[in-house]
Amino acid sequence: MSNVVARRLTKLNPDTALLAGLLHGVGELYILARAHKHPALFADQPVYDTIVRDWHVSVAKALLENWDISEEIVQAVSEFEDLDRRHSGPPDMSDVLTVAHLMVSYQDYPESIELNMQGVAAVQRLALDFATYSTIIHETRGEIKELQEALGA
Questions:
Q1: Residue 82 pLDDT class (50, 70, 90 cuts)
Q2: CATH number for the domain harbouring residue 143
Q3: Which residues contact 129 (CB under 8 A, 6 or more apart)?
């Protein structure tokens, strides 16, 4: 979805947006991969969920910086959950990733998307309204399916 949002709503590189979208959950994946080494700590699901919620962004940022991933992607992965994030200038990769994440999260609940995107700074910077959201979701279902198949998802 980040590829589609970047391509349709910005002048940002859609391939960079695709990579940011693929990497945005790497912190959660890393924590999950390490959970088996600490069974007592992670045996309680609410505790595990809290650890993931509180630490996944920091872990992702550290991993991506260690892998020498571009600063643009590191920043986007670090900031995409900050729905109130402010910055000047045109939409950036963080905005793309924020909007793409919201669109994916609510694509099966179109009746609630407008409410859930209300007041989100990235949505405002991308000038995304319900009609545009609906059009993108409808027109890109095939595109997204093709990308998923190409990636083996």
A1: very high
A2: 1.10.3210.10
A3: none
User: Rounded CA gap, 16 and 20, in Å?
Assistant: 6
Q: What pTM was computed for the model?
A: 0.86
Domain range for 99 is: 2-151
Sign of the CA dihedral with 27 first, then 20, 140, and 144 last: negative
Note whether 24 and 97 are within 8 A (CB). Answer: yes
Question: Cα torsion at 67, 68, 74, 77 (round to 10°)?
Answer: -20
Contact between 74 and 64 under an 8 Å Cβ cutoff? The reply is: yes
Q: Please give the tally of structural domains in the chain.
A: 1
Q: How far is it, in rounded angstroms, from Cα 77 to Cα 64? A: 9
User: What is the Cα–Cα distance from 25 to 33, expressed in whole angstroms?
Assistant: 12
Instruction: State CA 141 to chain mean position distance.
Output: 17
80 pLDDT band, cuts 50/70/90, is very high
